[in-house]
Amino acid sequence: MRVLIKIAWRNIWRNSVRSLIIITSIVLGLWAGTFVSAIYYGMGEDRVRIAIENEISHIQIHNPKYKDDFKVKYAIDYNDTMQAELKNTPNVKAWSARSRTQGMITSTTASSGVQINGIEPAAEDSTTHLGKKIIEGEYLAPGRRNQIIVGAKLARRLKLKLKSKVVITFLDKDDNMSSAAFKVVGIYESSNSTWDDANVFVKREDLNPLLNIDANAAHEIAILLNTNRLIDTTEAQLKKDFPQYKVESWMEIAPEINVVISLMGQVSTIFVIIILLALSFGIINIMLMAVLERTREIGMMIALGMTRFKVFQLVVLETFFLVMLGSPTGMLIAYGTISWLSVKGIDLSSFAQKSMASMGMSSVIYPALPWASYEQIIILVMITAVLSAVFPAIKALRLNPAETIKT
Amino acid sequence: MQNMVIEATNLSKTYNPDTIPVKAIDGVSLKMERGEFAALVGPSGSGKTTLLNLLGGLDKPDTGNIIVGGTDITQLGENALVDFRLHNIGFIFQAYNLIPVLTAKENVEFIMLLQNQPKAQRDARVGALLKEVGLEDKVNTRPLQLSGGQQQRVAVARALASKPQFVLADEPTANLDSKSAFNLLDIMHKLNLEENITFIFSTHDQRVIDRAQRVITLVDGRISSDTGIIKK
Predict the structure, then answer these.
(1) B56, A303: Cβ pair inside 8 Å?
(2) What's the complex ipTM?
């Protein structure tokens, strides 16, 4: 085997320009494939982060019947005991109790269907950083009644400004029509313009009486954890603590986000496979040339007593060396690029801010790739190397030594 | 009979049997003893190379048998034949056919590596052979840095490396100048005597024919004359 390795290694440097060209294309191809995968993965991670930090949080608690038809009457008794238990649950960073209903918001010029969220401003800010998303006006302040904050997109549609009066109309606990006037005190903008268009926030203490529910009642407890890794254990703990309620993680609440992430992963894998497929044709071409211009030499080796299996091994080794020279370099450059941009970010705000926001994504992409993906790419590269070697190797195997030596 | 290295009986070989048949070898029978230094001569197209290929197991005859050291090589399968060649037959080609990426030493060692011979044994044999062919100072030189004569001497050393039963040489001096050709013949003859290895070489070269112990002449695929061993 050592002699095969020696011959294979030296053979790839017989035509160093040709070998360097294919090595360079492997480097560039792998860099591109890995980098694009990292962009997709980073976008997916970003979508999850935005969904968790701004919209869903890690875990939510509801009345078991609430999500069947979102009736106001199916509320949670958010009493002192529950608050104390949440406070004592390990890994819980913050939580927000929300009263919630669907209704209409009407300005002087237009109206729109929205989700009306009754919140405790401080708790909501700790959980979803809503206060930091205020771009105009101020956050909900204690004391003053019937304040409302609306999303920037909705404000534009309804031509709302600060201090504009709006009327929100909805059904109360007993399905009676209820409405009240609110004053716009703030306009917020998150990374998800669709979300901004559909959600308005008022204080829970203002909304609950209008819904005709207890002051302690809430429809949703959104819980933010210290880290994503603790979702399963904390979810299990909360299910144990609140058996009367439905406790769900973000993956159960918003399965579509998981689908999007999984789809992005699949798309990036397909992209890498396409790149490797294109590369493999380049490698096959180079190796075929290498075999065809060495028919006499290979025939001579067979004549001297080298088995055809060893000839096969020789061609596979040469291909493997070519690929393995390019792959680590490509992966290393990709790793460097990804590491650098994972901190610096790729800012698309100048030309894609609106479209990214409409998909619930930030306009600054931070590429990232887990080790498992690097391993997957390395395995795909190795498979490519072996498969690319097969056709040229078969060509070499079919050589007739008596014929080739004569040439 | 123990001294008999090759016994070929009634060999025939036809190329393109289905289109334009070319009878390259037609009913050739041949016996060769250990230590012979024989020339295979004849005009172009007389079947010299085909006969060498058949004797070397590189091609299969349509009819007939070739028994080498008691083994009928026409009955061997592909892998067994490759293994047989590796251990029993040495080859010297007209165009040298060294492996260009290996040094002179590595080229000679190549066959012994395929045979998995231990390093000490390889080193001793390669060193001795390169000295025999006068290339002890070119051990680490690659073929392209050697002259044609030097390359062919490396090829001779390689052919003998595994101590084969016989060496087949197809026009070994065809690409060499007179001086190099004589030099090569001297070396081949010396090794033939020292190692008692049978040499069979095809040639047009009268200088080579004059050195041969036995001259077998082929015409139209048949042996037209065989001098037998005329010199010792």
Answers:
(1) yes
(2) 0.88
